[in-house]
């Protein structure tokens, strides 16, 4: 029962579910029936549901059939009306078709116009869209075109700025266009192109300043020269302030007003406009010669590109190379001043440009870099100048070189470069200059001394007299009172030498100008150089003249007179130096002139040469002596050669009237002594082995002639028989032999008042031996005569006694 109840309950639930599904199928849209049918197929009562469904279908078919049967007449009527409507509809269709055809025919033009209007509207819309796009792209294209134009005109820094705006502002707005992508890809290339072109411009700039360094330096040195001339003019007038040009004034060589170098615009980037320099027309500035804009542009471009350090290193490296080239002097620089000038101009031009770069850029070069270059330049320049100046033998070239070095140093000092070493080197060149001056003046003195006639200067008028006195400080009251024509005691070389000494002092003074030396230093330099001129150059020139082989006694006498007057003029030279240096001679450490010593030495040398010359002349006359030492005859007159010799001495000593008394007396005494000595040597020479008493008496006549000359007083100033004492040795020797006064000689020998005090026993023995040999050979039979035998014994006895005196004297 329970099972049958459960089956009955399940069949009721299934029937209710199927009924619900059927209602849902009937009421649900066909598109959504799928899930409902799926629930049927998912269940287990599919067959029963199909039966239910068939039953429901049959029921609906019966209802439809009933409904159709009920409305059949109405349906027929509707069909009939529908057929009528179809006919009317066909008519209406024909009318509509005809109307449409007419309308189409009539509206064909309108359709065409509408199509055209449609196309126009489409084109207008496209154009509007295109214009909008173009308006968006146009600034990009304009900026790109501007970029190209700037690069074409080499305005690279503005081009770089344009490139930045293009990249960061304009291109992002149109980045989806293909041409923009091409531009974006080209931006790094453009930057590299700008970088390369700017570097190329920098290389051209470096080449330009290398070529123009000479002109820049010349301009700067001209400016310094003008400023120095102006300072010299101002120094002569009362003024307040410094005479030295300020550093700021120095930069007027290059720019009157430099604007800020910050890269805000084209001009701010450091480009210099030459036309702005209208004030400096007399001496153009460096910007008139070199366009500095490339280096400024390149610096800013590399700074913007983040490669400033690379640029600075490259610039400094290249400039160091150029500095080494500039500091390499040409091998023939010493030959002309232009060689030195070009060398200095290049150095000045180099450092003026670097100084300009230092003050118009921010950090491209710094003071340490400039100082390093200057130290190198200073050492190389000084070494080059030392080497090349040593080749200079022309004092004018050395002086011009000194002035050029001073201008070179002053020019660079204006720009803040230390130049003390250059002035120290000028002191070295000063010594060389003194040497070249001494060599030059040696030639001048040589020419003066060679061309002089060594005769007193004759004057025939007051004008000529004043001219000579104006050239040489000479005062002689007695000479002034004498009527014209008259003669100065000295020859022409005295005023010429005096004036040349003054010219030498002027030349020394010229070198000391602008060396920033004190008056004491200048005075000391001039005095030392003048002392060298006097003690070495002039002294050597005088000595050479005095030692010449063909120099005559007249010339030697005149040299003594001339040096005497030059010696007196030394005090005027002292005054001359004092006047030009304003240093009193009483100042401590003031060097004194050694002119007095120089002229004294020259005079002494001339005196010695006179003595030597006189002696040589005497020797020449004595060479003409032709004594017959074996003669027994007596001429009762002096030898001819001796008479001529005495006449020569008389005429010679007559010329000595203008010499100082002691010089003439010394010369006369020296000549007489040399004559007496030579005659003694002639008598005692080894070649004369024999002589007779007759020859000795002839020789005595010649000695008497000499004594007569001595007594005549050829030179005034000797006391009594002083000059005769030169012949005292000969006189006593001859008197001893001629008078045969041996007993007196032997008895009084060694006593202070001995009659034959000047007779040396050796000399007497030598002469006695010659007479002894003669007596033996000429009197072969003398031994057979008693008198002759006695005389021979006497000679032997005297000779023996003389030997005894000699041996006792030596012991």
UniProtKB/TrEMBL annotation:
InterPro entries from the UniProt entry: EXOC6/Sec15 (IPR007225), EXOC6/Sec15_C (IPR046361), EXOC6/Sec15_C_dom1 (IPR042045), EXOC6_Sec15_N (IPR048359), EXOC6PINT-1/Sec15/Tip20_C_dom2 (IPR042044)
Region Disordered, as annotated, extends over: 253-280
Instruction: Show the coiled coil region(s).
Output: 82-109
Q: Which residues form the Exocyst complex subunit EXOC6/Sec15 C-terminal domain?
A: 421-770
UniProt KW keywords: Coiled coil, Exocytosis, Transport
The organism sits in which domain of life? Eukaryota
Please list the GO biological process terms of this entry.
Golgi to plasma membrane transport; intracellular protein transport; vesicle tethering involved in exocytosis
Q: Using the record's annotation, list all stretches that form the Exocyst complex component EXOC6/Sec15 N-terminal domain.
A: 52-221
The residue range of the signal peptide is: none
Q: Name one GO cellular component term.
A: exocyst
* Function comment: Component of the exocyst complex involved in the docking of exocytic vesicles with fusion sites on the plasma membrane.
UniProt similarity note: Belongs to the SEC15 family.
Protein's recorded name: Exocyst complex component
Species name? Ictidomys tridecemlineatus
Identify the coding gene: EXOC6B
